[in-house]
Amino acid sequence: MTFEVTILGSNAAVPAFGRHPSAQVLNVNEQCYLIDCGEGTQIRMNDFNIRRHRINQIFISHLHGDHIFGLIGLLTSYSLGQRTEKMDVFGPAGIQELLDVQLKYSQSHLTYPLNVHVVDPTESALIFSDKNVSVTTIPLDHRIPACGYLFREKDRLLNIIPEKLEAYGIDFKQIRDIKNGEKGISAAGKEIDNHLLTLPPYITRTFAYCSDTAYKPDIIPILENIDLLYHEATFNEEKSENAVATKHSTARQAAMIARGANVKKLLIGHFSSRYHDLNVLLHEASAIFNNTELAIEGKTFSVELRRMNSLKN
To answer: Is 66 considered catalytic here?
Structure first.
């Protein structure tokens, strides 16, 4: 059961040093969710073999060009491929008008329903849910309205231990109820506790995407104990004045958020074109939060499937 993030673009503002503007794809059990869509996103999908037909939801953090200028190209390319399945696009106010103008003056006509959902970037709220994930906004602090997104995997049904059903003489018609946590009834009419019939449940996996933002420690409670955090790290501390002026974060600040929230792994990205060698940013973050990696384009970061610890009799 897949839960992994592939980095399509990791640079800030403009392409540089082979790096591209922001975009990522989260794959949850082969359903894909696109997060931001900077210039060249669909080209990077081709480069990294992303199956774009599996994307039905796109989440835009804010309307700066390096996060959205690839969106209209991707949406119209879907029409060229005769897509018919609806697409949901989430983003701050203005996103509908932006797309309307581009579609109008390019005389582009979509072959599928496009549903644009305006989110409030000032509060944390549940904005989307399907069979795989729930998605909650994360308020950020940038020069224009911006939000991050927290993806939380849905709880799954318990896994039956087939030999236990046979040992207790339990009718297979009870499987659905047992998967939902109910007791089983043996052939002798005795109630059998659920934990004797099932494996421990899987722990739900989590990924948070924190795009352009000034250092904002009040988001830490939203991020507590998540598996994987992507947090922008545009500058190092030597350029902290630039970070303040442009409402971005330093690598050290990203690491402080990760450490404060007790996340399991931190990815840093949105690298300034000042940095050809990204190790200066990695070293700065790693000094605060050891389990830090660079969001290198083409790299996929997986969260393993784990079961809760439980004693079985």
So the answer is: yes
